[in-house]
Every structure is written in C-alpha cells, then in structure tokens.
Amino acid sequence: MNNIKVIAIGVVLATLSGCFSDEGNYDYDAPLVISVEGIENSYAVSPTGDRLTISPVITPADRTYDCFWTVTSASATWGDKVDTISRQQNLDYPVNLDMGNYKLRFNAKDRQTGVFSYTEYDLSVTTDMAAGWWLLKTVDGETDIDFFSTEKDKHDVLMSANGKRLSGEALNLDFTSNFWRFDTDKLTDVRLEAVFVASSSDLAAIDYFTGRIVSGYDDLFVDAPRNHEVRDMFKGPSDTHVYVDGYIYTMYHSKYSIYNQFVIKTLGSYDIAPQHHCAGSLPVLFNRANNSLCSVSRTSQGIDYFKNGTPSPNQMDMDLVFIGGQTTSQWTQGDIALAVMKSRTSGKHYLLQLDGQPYSMDSNPIMSMDEMPDGLGLYDANCRTLNQNNSIVYYSRDNHLYSCNLANFSETECEVQPGSGETVTYMEYLKFAPYGFDELWFDYLAIATSSGDSYKLSLHPVVAGRVQPADKVFQGKGKVKRACYMHQTSYGIYTSTLF
C-alpha cells in the first residue's frame, strides 16, 4: 500500500514539474469578432407604401456569412413569435406590419467557425398622428377631435376617418396600449393602441394612429345600457371606468389577456361627483349621496370606502368644490391631491391634502385639513386647475384669469389675460415628463377660449408659478373640452397628464 502511495505522489510531482517548466509555446488563433456598421439606431416607416432598405457592412469582410433579418414587437416577451422578413445581407422589405413599435434584428453567422452575432434596432411603424396634440371638442352639438403636430394638422378627425362624429357634447379622453380586437384578415386577436372618447351620449374606442372607430357604444359593453347618458370617464391602475346610466362600468386593460368590453358593473345606489383624481392608482372619487370619499376597482362589486380616521373621509357633510393633482416626484405624477371642500352646515371652505395614489382602501387618504378664509374668488370660479409643481391654483372668473396660492391663500390677477370677445371655457395644467426623453419635457397651463363658433387653445409656459405668454396657439371650430399631448416613442406611447 505504501509503495502505491509513493508511486502516486511521484506521478503528481512529475506532472507539476512539467507544468512549471512549460514555456507556453502554443499557437492559438485570436477569437473571431463580428462587427456590423451602416445601420441606423432607429427607423420610422409608414404601414402602407414604404420599403425598408438597409445595406449593412460586416467585418471582417474577407469571410462568408449567412445573414437574416427578424422583426418582433418592442414589448415582446419570451415565447412571442419572431418573424423572419429576409435571409439576405441587404434588406429590401416592403413594410407589412401593423402600426406600433418593433425591434429589428440583423443576424450574421460565420460559415467557417459558426460564430454568431446579432444587433438590434428600433423600428416604428407610424403615421402623421404619431406625436401631437389631441383636442377634444364639441362642434355643432357633437363630439370630434382636432390634431396638431409639427408635421401636419388635422381637423375633425372622427368625421374625416369615419364619416360621423359622436353624438352629444364632448366629455373626456383616455388612452390604453392594450385594447384587443379581432383581426378578420389574420383570424386572431391583436393588441393595439387605442384612445377612448366619451361624449354625453356616446362612447367609442378609436385607433390611435388613424382615428378610425374600432369599437362603438354597443360593442363596448356585454349588455349595453339602454339609456345613453354618459356622465364621466376616468382611469384606474390598469383600467378605464365609464359612468353610464347611473352605473360605473370597468374595462381591464391587459397585455396578455384579451379584454375589449366593459364587463364589470359597480352595483348600488350612488351619485359620483364630476370632480375626481386619477393618477395611476385607485381613483379618488366623491359620492354625493353620502358625502364620502370613495373609489372603485375591478375586484369589487360595489363602491369602496376608505378606512375611517381623523378627519373622517366618510359622512363628511361637505360638498367637493375642486380637486387637483400635485407632483412631488417626477416619477409619480399626482402623488398628492389638493381638494377644496365646502361645509354644508357652516358654509366654511376647507383645504384637504390627500394621498393622490392610494393603493388600498385600508387607510385614511386625508393627510391634513385646514380652514380657508372667506371671500376667495377661487370659490366662484368658472374653471380651475392646480399647478402640479406647487400649491398655486389658476382660475377664471368673470372672464379674467387669477391665481390663488393655497400656501397662504393670497390671490392675484394674472399678467396674461384672454383677448377681447374671448370666453374662457377650459383650463388645465399639463405636465409631460417621460423617463429617458428629457428633451420632450414641458409644463404648460393650457387655456381654451371661444369666440362665436371658434376656439383658441393657448399653451402658456409657467415660470416660478407665473403664467408666461403662450408659445403655442391652436385654433379651430367648436369648443375645447380637454387637451392632451401624446407621443409615440420606441418604448411606447406617452401622454401628458390626464387626471
């Protein structure tokens, strides 16, 4: 046994000695590194008539490569289909894709070594409505949309794309990137970007890129309410809620599951105020039937009420005068809500600071409540909106513009005023701050006026709370109800604030 151990030790020592004396005289080839040039980081094409032509340059150039091109949705996950659109090095592709954002990949494999490389680029299939201002308006008693951009302006989008408007006066807009419809050509359900349009007596989901109606009132419900009385439309965490014929209906927007109807009905007897705050979490609503702050969700069959506390959010014996969103972090717009409420018994007004993004009903959303002084012009205003960056409310009264600083309740007349013969019909503080696109950011006080049968929407920069002269002015027929900026990027479509 000892001899065996000695022999084994000797073998090990001899091996180690050989390793230490190895002078490294080996002749290894350097690994092959494939690089690709001649391809832009991003491309934008039209869904009809455009050809995508790209001629990449591969190095090392003195080798033979097998090449192919693939395209997949920008939001694709594992398991989603990847389409091969060419097996040639030079791409000449007649675009045959639905509108949206994609990832274009160029793949090259060296035949001799099998070394494989792929590079990825952004591809947007879009139209001239990819980025611009959407103005929801009432014209001749019906609802339509005007669109303004640096490329092209479009008036009466609904009439032009569909041959008709929505009946009734304009009410609200909402956007989702997860609306599903059945494609009769592909015989499958496809997901698209859609804008919900609500009027006082109609609803429709329209294609973001074309303005075509993809689903009308009757198709949007499992059992459509007979009374076409639409009182409101507002957002949930991943939902759109509509208040129709005395009930709130909810549509869930899922990237993976097919939903295209308002299938959830909130039961009970309630009277929800038209003022609300919806900032990406549970909407903050006010039920006038019992004077209580409340909310709705797709997981509940009735109105949900917040947990009691001091001050109590329930049975408040108050009327909601105004509510607006304040942003304390650029990543969570509207995380604070400021509400002005009036006591039904004393007539006093109170300023409430609320959690603007409640994620459950298990806490009291009221963070503070302070009595406000009597006689503020803010109380009798025609239009109001809150500066998201501070506590200044801008409002119109007797067709003049004022500001009220809720920090000290001081009121001043704005330096900017509407023109002679113009009546203020709409005001909203619009903030646009998509992550990674700092060059697109803006803060505007949007003010719409009407004169005769025409409107003028002015976008005013705000500096240190002071309203500056407008740097953009849009004009058209009708009366503006809401304005929203929407922009298609390689990461999806971003919108300005729509609380």
In short:
5% of the residues lie in helices and 48% in strands. The chain contains two helices and 38 strands. It is elongated and about 90 Å long.
Explain what you see.
Helix content is 5%, strand content 48%. The protein is built from two helices and 38 strands. The strands form ten sheets. The chain has a five-stranded mixed sheet, with no helix packed on it. A five-stranded antiparallel sheet has the order 12-11-10-37-38. Strands 32, 33, 34, 35 and 36 form a five-stranded antiparallel sheet that branches. It is elongated and about 90 Å long.
Helix and strand layout, with pairings?
Elements: H1 2-20, E1 35-37, E2 42-45, E3 51-54, E4 57-59, E5 65-73, E6 83-86, E7 91-94, E8 100-110, E9 116-125, E10 131-139, E11 142-148, H2 157-162, E12 166-167, E13 170-183, E14 188-199, E15 202-207, E16 213-216, E17 230-235, E18 239-244, E19 247-252, E20 264-266, E21 285-287, E22 292-295, E23 304-305, E24 318-326, E25 336-343, E26 349-355, E27 366-371, E28 383-386, E29 392-397, E30 400-405, E31 410-413, E32 423-432, E33 442-451, E34 454-463, E35 466-467, E36 472-477, E37 479-489, E38 492-495
Parallel strand pairs: 2-9
Antiparallel strand pairs: 1-4, 3-7, 5-6, 5-8, 8-9, 10-11, 10-37, 11-12, 13-14, 14-15, 15-16, 17-18, 18-19, 19-20, 21-22, 22-23, 24-25, 25-26, 26-27, 28-29, 29-30, 30-31, 32-33, 33-34, 34-35, 34-36, 37-38
